[in-house]
Structure formats: C-alpha cells, structure tokens
Specification:
Length: about 180
C-alpha cells in the first residue's frame, strides 16, 4: 500500500517539476526580450524577470525535483527489481539528464542576472520544448514499460522533436512576418 502513496507523490512531484521548468524557460524568453523595451523600462523588467526566475527555481522546481527523486528512489527500495528492468534503466537515465537540464537552468539564471545573454528569445523558445521531449519519453517508458520498443520510441520522440522545431520556426516566421 505504501508503494501507491509514494507513486502518487512521485507523479505529483513530476507534474510540478515539469510545470516549473516550462514556466522558468518561458521567463527566460521574456527576460531577453526585455532588451527590446524602451530604455527606461529595460532594467525594471529585467529585475522583475530575474526575481521571478529565482522564485520559480527555488520555490517550485527544486522542491518538486526533490519530491520526485525522493519518492522515486523510495519506490525502488520497496521494489528493487525495477533496477533490472530495461524500461526503468532508460527512464532513470532520462531523469538524470532532466536533472542536468534543471541545474543548467540555474546557470542560465546566473548568466542573465549578470547581464549576459546565452541565447536569443527564439533559442530559448526551442529550449523550452526540451522538457516536452523528456516528458513524452519518461511517460511512455513508465506507462508502456516492456511493451515499448525503445528504438521505435526513440525514433518517434525524435520525429516529435523535429516537428516541434518546424512549428517553432513557422511561428517565428509568422510573428516576424
């Protein structure tokens, strides 16, 4: 019975973590677009977006990531056979990469705070789609487990990523056109 409670909180943590990451990178977009505002508005906008970035990162992303990892690891201790399953090993690898992405976002906040622009707004928009690919992959692995052919799944996620890129380019062209 305890396993189901940890699974429920693991899912809640993952949903909050992804929501935070989606919102955080969207704020990055607005932060770099603040340079297009009139001179007297630029600094106040950048300060506000910087404050929002830190709040989202510290108040939403970090606790949600910790809840996801804690409950997930507890589930593996309650059911150690997960570690021998291919789908779980792939999911665990993706979670490590997602955590690297999470930490990388913190570095971006620091760079933006220093006035550096690591990416333009379009590149940040593309970066904002990366969690979508993680989410799709992780959910497919968790739900379909051994029924999933990893090669086809990887190909499908790759095609989905290319489609996201094409739609982002089309949206950019439409906005600028």
């Amino acid at each position: 019975m305890a396993l189901f409670y940890f699974k429920a909180f693991h899912i809640v943590g993952a949903v909050a973590w992804f929501a935070g990451l989606f919102y955080l990178v969207r704020i990055f977009v607005y932060h770099v677009e603040a340079d297009q505002k009139p001179e007297h508005l630029r600094q106040p906008f950048k300060e506000q977006f910087g404050l929002m970035e830190w709040r989202v990162y510290k108040i939403i992303c970090n606790p949600a990531m910790m809840l996801t990892w804690t409950c997930g690891l507890i589930m593996t201790f309650l059911n150690p056979s997960y570690w021998q399953m291919g789908w779980f090993q792939a999911k665990f690898s993706l979670l490590i990469l997602l955590t690297v992405y999470h930490i990388w976002c913190k570095r971006i906040i620091i760079k933006l705070e220093k006035g550096e622009k690591p990416f333009d707004s379009f590149q940040f928009r593309l970066l904002n789609e990366l969690p979508t690919l993680f989410l799709l992959s992780i959910v497919l692995l968790a739900v379909l487990r051994d029924m999933l052919n990893f090669l086809y799944a990887f190909g499908g996620v790759l095609v989905f990523g290319v489609l996201l890129f094409v739609f982002a380019k089309a949206y950019r062209k439409r906005r600028e056109g």
